[in-house]
Amino acid sequence: MHPTGTLIYQPFLTGAAGAPNVRGGVDISDARSGQLRMRIFLPQQLMTDVDALHGDFLTIDENGQRLFAITSLDGSPQKAALTVVQLASVPLALGSVSSPTISAAGGTTLTIRGSGFQAGIKVAIGGKPTMTTLLDMNTLIVVSPVVPAGTQQLTLTNLNGETVTVDAVVIAN
Predict the structure, then answer these.
(1) Which residues contact 14 (CB under 8 A, 6 or more apart)?
(2) What is the pTM of this model?
(3) Would you state the CATH architecture of domain 93-172?
């Protein structure tokens, strides 16, 4: 799981563990929706003596951008190796909002945690843009705009067009 809880990194094999020509990989899914966000194939199958879902053979760095997998040409420990995958970008996803209650009059400062935040990211609450500061690829500080009272939709949009929208994440009163 991504350190912010936004993404699930699920290993898979294309066939039975240890069988010839089996490849390994990692599916990255949004933890909220379960939607597959990225599929990565590794050059070899994952090293496991059971199947692709059991064993200690996959870990990620503090940002979810580097994957470290113990792999093997044929699934055997004798041909085991460490495979490191550097992602060009981590999928955009929303993890948490520091305080889901904001003032309808605007001006509430929120900390948003998630993944895949890039320079120039835009955040909207209730369809209205916020003042946004990118602290790091997992943390944003936003100041809420004036919105009507009630539940509000939160939208994150990177400059490359990647967008995540979550309903009823923020409540204005």
Answers:
(1) 22, 23, 24, 25, 45
(2) 0.81
(3) Sandwich (2.60)
